[in-house]
């Protein structure tokens, strides 16, 4: 489904600030895989997401989706195959537009936009049906401006907008990190449900190790621009937070900063 | 007095079309587009030159629309493909258009008084309807004979035209393309993640905005009976003044309302300027200064009013809490923490 080959990305090359964000990274995801990604700050997780989505381009390496090379395709074209939810709840929606208008915008992810009305009666019924999945009562507030929603509601809406058109790949970059624990749990639960419902191939970054263990069928750990540990479908169920920490220590040979702060 | 006010309403409606263009770039695209000062003249110049060379005035006015569209697209391309800052792209285009407008007209001023224009055609057609004489006898019979404008035709037709354009803008902004255009001004990273080409949308949006501006310029030139290379100076501020006054008076809760606000704002702006110019100590040359002052007022006064209101609310609440002696703060906090 998704195949990354020798992805290399360096920022500020040739200056004292030179930073290798991704170093010869390899990743292969099969259809229906749900991979959780953990790693310390600056490990290159967001850069990886940006390279898959086409927001930035690698200095070397190829990105393939469904076997076709997307390496030089601009972000808006790649978006036909990719759904994305950002960390910031403000980033995934248009605040001055209504809930139904936002959904209409998302509805067009897979088809070219035309001069027909974005919100029609038929679509409105469809949107209402989709919003019911969230159990937040948003289906009764179709004409409310999204700017008036709470952070949790907005993030739930962003998640729905990114997924209800069934993308080939779903990218989630710490999409629960900016929410308080109760709302983060809600979004985590919705993520689980929606990914299962639409059978989405998903890549999810999180700083919460427990969340990374609870969700998905595979797990990868990143550090310094590389994948340093990988657990597949058969290995992942046996993992615990303690094992992950021990693994990190073994591979990097560095004592973790006393507690889990580096990863958690 | 009445005639002067009627005249300003008439002109205001024509300028409202320009203000709708400014609304599109400033408010919808969130792009401070200074191309307007140039494209307004480009519209007037294109129409004037086409009319003089014998083209049907309606076609000539449509030609102005196209010229404005192209000018706006160039600004958009400078910004998106040339990666030039929004303000600077507009300024560059405005300066470039000054020379281009001179080239189009071949001289700084093209008179149209002897020509057949959209305005003369409308007047002639309207005269045929006999509506003016009807209004005349009506107003005279109720004792308002001194309040009779020479013709209602220009006002009526321009009003219908401006309203039709407003309606078209409303509808366009509800289409799939229109929605993505609005989202570009709101959150352009998000629009890209939903596979919209934001560069192209910005170019399109600026094209449409400047098409409206140039269209308005073409009508103003024909209304005034000449096209002048300097007639666009400060146009952007006039457009902005219209948008801001309208928003202050009507509000902008929905698109339908916001575009209506622009129309009304444009007329109000004209009325205010006309009234201000009647003051003894002000001259025609002070118009730009008056405009600047109006914009400053329209920007500052609503904020002062809001502050005043907030202050009053605060005092009221303090008084209530003081007398009741309870702590209402907790309740407020509890209510807010719900999802
Ligand atoms: N646009 C950029 N310009 C310059 N440097 C960048 C840019 N984006 C990322 N970097 C650098 O690349 C490295 C990897 O950053 P990245 O954002 O991918 O980390 P991350 O794993 O997502 O970290 P976090 O957990 O803090 O989100 C960091 O050192 C960062 O400073
Ligand atoms: Mg990150």
Task: Describe the protein.
The complex is a heterodimer of chains A (264) and B (339). In chain A, 31% of the residues lie in helices and 23% in strands. Chain A is an alpha/beta fold. By secondary structure, chain B is mainly alpha-helical. The radius of gyration of chain B is 23 Å and the shape is globular. The N and C termini of chain B lie far apart (58 Å). Mean pLDDT of chain B is 90; it is low at 325-339. Magnesium ion (MG) is lined by residues 45-46 of chain A. Magnesium ion binds at residues 45-46 of chain A.
Which stretches of chain A are poorly predicted, pLDDT < 50 over at least 5 residues?
256-262
- Estimated structural class of chain B: mainly alpha
Overall 3D form of chain B = globular
Q: Would you give the CATH topology of chain B?
A: ABC transporter involved in vitamin B12 uptake, BtuC
Overall geometry of chain A comes to globular
Q: Using the 3D structure, state the CATH architecture of chain A.
A: 3-Layer(aba) Sandwich
Strand order of the largest sheet of chain A: 6-7-8-3-9-10
Gyration radius of chain B, in Å: 23 Å
Give the count of structural domains of chain B.
1
Q: At the fourth CATH level, what is the homologous superfamily of chain A? A: P-loop containing nucleotide triphosphate hydrolases
> How many H/I helical runs of chain A?
8
Largest sheet of chain A: 6 strands, mixed
CATH class of chain B: Mainly Alpha
**Structural category of chain A:** alpha/beta
How is the largest sheet of chain B built, in terms of strand order? 1-2
InterPro entries (chain A): AAA+_ATPase (IPR003593), ABC_transporter-like_ATP-bd (IPR003439), ABC_transporter-like_CS (IPR017871), ABC_transporter_ATP-bind (IPR050166), P-loop_NTPase (IPR027417)
Keywords (chain A): ATP-binding, Cell membrane, Membrane, Nucleotide-binding, Transport
Domain ABC transporter (chain A): 2-249
GO molecular function (chain A): ATP binding; ATP hydrolysis activity
